Amino acid sequence: MRTLLTIKNYRCFVRPITIEITKGFTAFVGVNNAGKSTIMRFLLETRPFLQTMSNMQVLIQTINGNSINLVLAHVLDNHEIFSNLNNNAVEFSIKFVADDQGRGLIDGHQVEYLFVANRNMQVLTSVNIDGEPLRKPENKIAYTNNHISINGKSVASLQTISETFLSLSNSLYIGPFRNTINAGTKTDYLDIQIGQSFITQFRELKTGSSKKSNTDISRLTEDIRKVFQFAALAGC
Questions:
Q1: Is 24 in a helix, a strand, or coil?
Q2: Are 53 and 62 contacting, i.e. CB atoms less than 8 angstroms apart?
Q3: Are 73 and 48 in contact (CB under 8 A)?
Q4: pLDDT band at 186 (very low <50, low <70, confident <90, very high)
Q5: What distance lies between CA 187 and its chain's CA centroid?
Q6: pLDDT class of 185 with cuts at 50, 70, 90
Q7: Element (H or E) spanning 62, and its range?
Q8: Global pTM?
Q9: 107, 98 in Cβ contact below 8 A?
Q10: 3-class SS letters over 170-236
Q11: In 3-state terms, what secondary structure has residue 141?
């Protein structure tokens, strides 16, 4: 099964951008200003929302038409996440499609979860099954054994989307920051500490009162020394 994340009207992403999330995926590689850091920033800033939506009961309530507040992290003004080029809502979706061998879906049904974050910070959720809205007048929707059923037939696993949200919210997001020391007092860049704050904490862990921290820093320093030693021997 393939998992596709699409983002639209978030910061510089006025046009939709889609990435595939796969097992073992660890890095974005591309030219400058391609949007690599913005994708990670989106996942970092929406982390509280993703964590909340990993809860099966909350997910079912939102699918049934209940809005949920978009709680953000590392954002001073909530409205800064919206594009300055229009007045539209931020939209993002997670779509599950079959792999090249047609595997991974329940009876081959393609499932897409769509989320619309309006400027009042309320998020509305909808679901498409094979491109058609889940909630149609003729459909009888049921949620049993963590599955979505239409007219008595299982079409999607809620466990899949729940685990995807949980995985994305638990991931560590590290950007391509190149200058660790001369960054003033800024405390973090995405999920890592940088600047003088990083240097100060490193020194405290190295020489402070916690024996475990002292030992961990010494081990880390030795590991870094070995890496550089190996690189030198390899002529890198």
A1: coil
A2: yes
A3: yes
A4: low
A5: 21
A6: low
A7: helix 56-63
A8: 0.81
A9: no
A10: HCCCCCCCCCCCCCCCCCCECCECCHHHHHHHHHHHHHCCCHHHHHHHHHHHHHHHHHHHHHHHCCC
A11: strand
